[in-house]
Amino acid sequence: MYGFYNDGVWGGGNMMSWFGGGLMMIVFWALIVMLIVWLVREISGRHSGSNSRVLDILKERYAKGEISKEQFVAMKEDIK
Fold it and tell me: Alpha helices, DSSP H only, in the chain?
């Protein structure tokens, strides 16, 4: 109920009725969604980044002549 109350104050109820309660619920769920998105990106980003780093090291070893082509191909297939 909006309008003047008995004490002559204009308003729509207490602070937590719509603004505080509704807005805080939206903020809460937005933070939960952002946390989930961040966690998924962190988990998937580390996994794919580690494979590319391992492949870079393998390419360096092949370029330096530390491993043969057959070893390179075999190790590359093991990484995937």
Answer: 21-64, 69-79
